[in-house]
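Hypothesis: this fold can be encoded by more than one sequence.
Test: take the structure tokens below, design a sequence, compare later.
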């Protein structure tokens, strides 16, 4: 079989999900496309219809990785998160066509080398469009491609069971996602801005607000719920698989959340999506949710000079979330559907 590989083993969940547009492009020349990704991203990429099989790079010895790749007999591969390990693996596996990043010491391992636009100063092209430069190097393209997520039957049952447990109807609740990777890593994540926004959403639309998050986010999410002072603001932290969250988001009135992997999952399943970009270091044009019904809330907080989300000392922009602008974005997104 004429099979290609998407090697996207790096970054966050959003990086891997957005990279699946490359799989769509590869289908122009290849019968099937597999993905090699991080262990934590596997369950999400298994929901992507353009990907046949998903394997993980769990840091096993490089010779074992090379042997596994060689046995699958790929005709081509595209490495979207280039590292010395990834370059050595695909070269060692003797994959005939190897596309990867230029301007790196290991770039010679690739048969086709692509200069990433962001290195040339591009801050406005969406990351999906930048990644599509890789398959374009070998004559594959997917104009206007967006990531797709298709929840499985078990995911649909999980979402349905949760709606039944909470007595929720389709299109009659919001999902609010208040955390990203640094929220739990640094222990500094303010909750008052999210509590205020959750309460405002509930009061404005008279619909329950469900706060999503992973098990690691449970303490933060439950603190937000308590601070909201509203019994119709509820925690879902740790209760859903990523596929069940996708199904629940698809059937929500809207998904509202900080820019993170969950936002991209919601967009990929077709949910109405409001992306919140609170940091001055964010690039909303680059990481906007890719879906028909979307809105963006850009940073308006005067951050300290040089602040980055990984090193910020107080996350004052999170504490001071601009709730009126979030509500305005939601209202604008829903306006055509208002009854």
């Amino acid at each position: 079989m004429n099979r290609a590989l998407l090697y996207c083993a790096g970054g966050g969940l959003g990086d891997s999900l957005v990279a699946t547009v490359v799989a769509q492009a590869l289908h122009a020349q290849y019968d099937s496309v597999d993905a090699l990704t991080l262990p934590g991203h596997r369950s999400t990429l298994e929901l992507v219809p353009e990907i046949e099989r998903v394997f993980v790079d769990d840091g096993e010895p490089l010779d074992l990785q090379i042997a596994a790749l060689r046995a699958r007999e790929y005709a081509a591969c595209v490495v979207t998160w280039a590292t010395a390990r990834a370059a050595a693996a695909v070269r060692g596996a003797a994959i005939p066509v190897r596309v990867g990043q230029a301007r790196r010491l290991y770039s010679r391992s690739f048969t086709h080398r692509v200069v990433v636009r962001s290195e040339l100063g591009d801050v406005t092209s969406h990351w999906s469009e930048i990644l599509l430069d890789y398959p374009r190097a070998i004559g594959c393209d997917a104009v206007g491609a967006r990531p797709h997520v298709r929840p499985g039957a078990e995911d649909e049952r999980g979402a349905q069971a949760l709606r039944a447990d909470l007595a929720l109807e389709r299109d009659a609740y919001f999902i609010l996602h208040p955390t990203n990777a640094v929220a739990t890593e640094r222990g500094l994540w303010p909750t008052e801005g999210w509590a205020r926004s959750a309460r405002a959403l509930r009061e404005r639309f008279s619909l329950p607000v469900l706060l999503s998050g992973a098990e690691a986010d449970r303490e933060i999410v439950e603190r937000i719920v308590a601070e909201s002072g509203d019994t119709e603001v509820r925690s879902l932290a740790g209760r859903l698989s990523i596929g069940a969250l996708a199904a629940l988001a698809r059937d929500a009135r809207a998904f509202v959340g900080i820019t993170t992997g969950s936002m991209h999952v919601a967009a990929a399943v077709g949910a109405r999506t409001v992306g919140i970009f609170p940091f001055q270091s964010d690039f909303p044009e680059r990481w906007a949710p890719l879906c028909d019904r979307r809105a963006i809330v850009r940073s308006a907080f005067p951050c300290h000079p040089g602040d980055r989300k990984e090193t910020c000392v107080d996350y004052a922009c999170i504490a001071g979330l601009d709730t009126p602008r979030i509500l305005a974005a939601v209202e604008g997104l829903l306006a055509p559907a208002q009854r």
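The longest helix spans residues 192-205. The chain is about 35% helix and 15% strand.
Hypothesis status: open.
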